[in-house]
Write a structure and sequence with these properties.
4-stranded mixed sheet; 22% strand; alpha+beta; 15 helices; 6-stranded mixed sheet
């Protein structure tokens, strides 16, 4: 994962006209009129997550999910765990560092062409040449076809997350369409949305945040249970669900009682998404871990949850992995709310208080800029009052803070380019494969706005490399325990809390939604598993 791919807007404008001409419709309101019982609508507070092909969707969970309806992977998950998708079986051969996949026969692309091993080999080669923001193929040497329905994928080195992070997350694309595409991020013609998934993409209204998909009748696992799948943008998820405008929404946990009384099903997820304080550890005084620990002791995380989220959430582990993860280390270092400890650390670093009670050093005031934005969690924008609470806490501890509120994309860009001091951000993936630690810590993953991109501790880097190369689960678990301890001691970012994650749906629509164990693909904590509409 070397770079983050963003949709180029100029080709998208061109594509809109091509789409109208070739597909016979555009973003007309009548396309999204309620189509009877043979239709499911998902409400979403943000709306626009990019166009649903691998290089055009936005690099956050809801963007990936919109793409996943159209493109299938070799392996997928249902509520019980990994299941066959385009591959019917697979095996690992350690002596050759190879995974061999037996592929499903009779699969057709949405344009009627036959799927084969050539498409899988091409996908691996293409994504190695044109990196995809969600899946790193750095450990993959290459792939070869062993016949039309068998593929061998060879590794450069042992890679423990392969089945989760490649087999279960890499969308397979058709060779006959993409082989002549030199610039994939600019490829948004109608054929760029041809996959093998259960739904065909039909329309996207960027301004209104609406998406339209229709069932693919020749889907290899059987025709989907509904004819149309629609995403709508909604500012009031509760009313959208109760009025019938939406059938599945993300809701605040305090709405659960009302919804249950109205006959809705309420889903509660494990702690797979966290809010955290990003730190620019490349500039002083934030480059000193003692100073970062002083910040941690000055932040009352329970107060943030109580004042900004009505007490609906739980404090996060400083080692990053969720306490609900099987590899969670309960003995990871902790930083209790202790302003007196903050004062002691700052004074040991040479800071003194001025007449107003704020710290200064060498006649310079200690002042930090804190970026905030309306962060999206579970597909829904979260009005961010966290910044206000944290600013007051830090100023009470003697640290001046300038609070700057930006639109999320602008805040992300500043963090990505290291033009910040502190920034509030958040991400999921904390229940999936522990390679999430590498993605959220290592400096290799330069494109991620949620990664600490921290390379100052060689022991930590060595542990990260070792854990993804360790194929023995028990040995790997011990390595992951050590990573959490070292990371929490260096504290390149401060984990704040896990917001309570709740969704609700209307059971009268005949679909049983669920949160997938460990999250979808790389650990996406959304109850929008396509298997809900297939099985």
């Amino acid at each position: 994962m070397k770079s983050t791919v963003w949709m180029n807007m100029r080709p998208w404008i061109i594509f809109a006209g091509v789409f109208l001409a070739l597909w016979g419709f555009g973003s007309r309101p009548d396309l999204f009129a309620r189509g009877g019982n043979d239709e499911i609508r998902i409400g979403d507070g943000k709306g626009d997550w990019g166009a649903p092909n691998p290089y055009a969707h936005y690099p956050r969970g809801p963007g990936y999910i919109r793409m996943s309806w159209v493109f299938d992977t070799l392996i997928w998950k249902d509520k019980d765990g990994a299941i066959p998708a385009l591959a019917t079986s697979w095996a690992y051969y350690p002596e050759t560092r190879s995974f061999v996949f037996q592929l499903r026969k009779g699969v057709k692309w949405h344009d009627g062409k036959e799927f084969s091993s050539a498409d899988v080999v091409f996908t691996i080669d293409y994504f190695k040449q044109h990196p995809y923001c969600w899946v790193s193929l750095d450990a993959v040497a290459g792939a070869q076809a062993d016949g039309p329905y068998s593929v061998t994928i060879k590794l450069k080195r042992p890679y423990a997350p392969f089945l989760s992070y490649v087999g279960g997350a890499l969308p397979i694309i058709p060779k006959h369409i993409w082989k002549d595409v030199p610039h994939p991020q600019r490829f948004t013609q109608p054929e760029s949305f041809i996959g093998t998934g259960p739904f065909q993409f039909r329309d996207f209204n960027k301004a209104k945040g609406t998406y339209l998909y229709t069932a693919y009748d020749d889907y290899y696992q059987g025709r989907p249970r509904i004819r149309r799948l629609i995403y709508i943008k909604t500012k009031n998820p509760l009313m959208s669900l109760l009025s019938g405008r939406a059938d599945l929404v993300t809701v605040r946990p305090d709405m659960a009682g009302i919804l249950k009384e109205k006959g809705m099903v309420v889903l509660e997820d494990q702690r797979g998404w966290n809010k955290k304080l990003m730190i620019n550890h490349r500039k002083p005084p934030l480059d000193d871990k003692r100073f970062r620990k002083a910040l941690a002791h000055a932040i009352n995380r329970l107060e943030i949850i109580d004042k900004a989220h009505q007490g609906l959430g739980s404090v996060a582990a400083f080692g990053l992995l969720s306490p609900d993860h099987e590899f969670y280390n309960p003995d990871t270092p902790d930083y209790a709310y202790e302003p007196a400890r903050t004062a002691k650390i700052l004074e040991s670093l040479g800071y003194e208080k001025d007449a107003q009670g704020f710290y200064m050093k060498d006649d310079l005031s200690l002042k930090l800029e804190l970026l905030t934005s309306d962060i999206t969690a579970g597909g829904e924008p979260m009005a961010d009052r966290d910044g206000e609470v944290i600013r007051k806490q830090l100023e009470s501890a003697g640290i001046r803070v300038e609070l700057v509120n930006l639109e999320q994309t602008s805040a992300d860009n500043r963090v990505r380019n290291w033009k910040f001091d502190l920034a509030i951000s958040g991400h999921g993936g904390l229940l999936g494969d522990p390679e999430i630690l590498n993605l959220m810590i290592s400096p290799e993953f330069k494109g991620s706005v949620n990664s600490a991109r921290y390379g100052k501790n060689q022991t930590l880097l060595d542990l990260l490399s070792a854990q993804v190369a360790e194929m023995d689960p028990e040995v790997r678990k011990r390595l992951v325990f050590q990573i959490q301890e070292v990371y929490a001691d260096d504290l390149p970012a401060i984990s704040l809390y896990y917001p309570a994650s709740t969704s609700a749906y209307n059971p009268a629509r005949g679909i049983d939604w669920y949160y997938t164990q460990g999250g979808l693909a790389l650990g996406i904590p959304l109850p929008q598993n396509k298997m809900s509409l297939i099985r």
